[in-house]
Protein: Tubulin polyglutamylase TTLL6
Amino acid sequence: MIDHQLVNEEESSKTQSPDKSEESENDNAMPKRPKKKGKKVIMNVALTKYQVVKKTASKFFGWKLTKKEDDENWDIFWTDASVEPEKLARMKIYQKINHFPGMYALTRKNHLAKNLNRMRKQLPEVYNYYPKTWLVPAELSDLRLYSSKEKNQVFIVKPEASCQGRGIFLTKKFDDFSFDDRYVVQEYIKQPFLIDGLKFDLRIYVLVAGCDPLRIYLHKEGLGRFATEPYSQPNASNLAKPCMHLTNYAINKNNENFVFNENEEDDGVGHKRSLTSIMKYLEDSGHNTEKLWNEIKAMIVNTLIAAQPMLSHTYRACQPDDPSNSMCFEILGLDVMLDSTLKPWLLEVNHSPSFTTDSPLDWKIKFEVISQALTLMNISYSNRKTAESKRKKSILTRSLTTSQEKKEIKQHEIRRAQRKRDIWEQNNIGGYTKIYPTANPKEYEKIFETSRQVYEEWAGYKKVNKKEEKAQELNRPKSQLMRTKASGFQKKETDCQNQRSMSIIMCNTESEAIAEGLVRSSTPCVYNRLYSPVKRTYKNEGLQSNFPMVHLDKSHQSEVPVRQSLIIETSSQNNKKSQSPCRKPQNSTIEDLINESKAIENLKKRLIYYNSPLKIQSVQLSHNSEDNSVNISEFQDLQIPKIKCPQIEYIRKQSNNLRNPAYWKKVLTRLEKQN
Structure:
């Protein structure tokens, strides 16, 4: 059934390439975009063999090509091979590459079968467009049982790693077979839709422009690939005739009956035709092509949803800070067959569909697919300058921004990039149609949720969660973990002194504490961030004199050993003029020192100036204005999380002098003498 199930035309590396005269004709016929001033986009083509890709970049877009694989100075990298996560992780934020790490979940025959079979078990009414498939030898016993019940069923067998039709055969029985290698076995579609008495399949081009969230485009143009011998029902006498049952180009092009298309305008003749000509033929024959097209769109979206959790997880693990969701894109070639009732069946998904151009029709269609995809991705040299400018700005403001503010900034950048992208794509969509996201966001909600659950179960995440929950019940302290974060500033009417108000984040479970950075996770943090949304409870208590770090909830202090508060009195106000640039200006008080918005930085400066290291593990400081005292309460058995934060790192590395009353008296005495 795999007709093209059978074969990967995508990898037909030995297919004919156009001769020089044909290439020159294509060059002359190729339209050119208006040239832009400034530096050119650099495209790395070291790992692609397709001339249509190189010429589209150099002649149509006017980009500069580089052929050095290890050259890191590029804006877009085009490769015919798959991309490893390490490659994506090393990329700069402005760079783009034409494959997603993890797309093998759909483009390898065995992984496609596994993923769609899992989804079909959960949603059989949705995933009924994929033929019944078995992986042997692992599922050989199930296959033999099924074939014994379905005596007349024909199966198509293809090696797991085959291409160009090698090793593919049709059979009815498996009793006498011993499979030493791995194979993918599918039910054969015995009653395909025929045109001119020939079996055919459709090569449909799909652009995946983003994975988190999904962003999918379908091109209106594609190819219809025909077998070269008239079709008849499979029987013992014709099972071994590949040019009757298989439609892949690599097999049929060598048949004496094969007719090449010699005129791109006459796209409805020959054994390779345009998708639009086939749709026109069906419409003229009285078939409902709009319904067929909608079924194909739903098939594409559902197939990509089955792999979306893996794609998203891999992408965000490599590039967690990309707001545009566009560092990767991919042109997939889906092989679809129509049966006699005009129902579409998915045969294969090709991650690198063949871009050889053996005919003018090939060149026309593949040039449109590639050039319009690159246009949609909005690749320009200005992206590099903008990214570099943002990087420098983030370095300057990094230490002045709280984690909550960083989240808000990131969400704002994502929304802004999304709006900008929507406008660009709407004006430059060309022959593509956006098929996801749809106008109705709830249309695929159930399928997404099922896909996420299936992926979590396959990845063993649910088992890990169950073990963590048991451990929490046995070992979790009764008290609740909290972390304070700056949420804004409040102005006092009396002395116009800035006071910090704190928002307290209550973490009732270990997973919430992990997400808030309070404790370490036993599972990958990226996975937790993507697939375990944390439910947080916020409340404002107007706490004063607290350092922004971990401490215990007041309502549960009695359950944890607490040392008695240490009270240190001072004899005078700190009202004299500062003698050092490290100290506060005139009219500074101890209350100012504790309560002001940058308390940690100011304490740090003063105590370093007096050569007095400070260690705060989990502490509250408060100032009593009546008796001018500083209260220091220390909580035991609580550690500051090991996160990369300059203030926390400084505090963690200091000595343990906080517990020594003599130390504080010495510090305050120095302050008094200096003032």
Summary: The CA atoms of residues 312 and 455 lie 11 Å apart. The first strand starts at residue 42 and ends at 47. The chain has two domains: 3-449, 462-674.
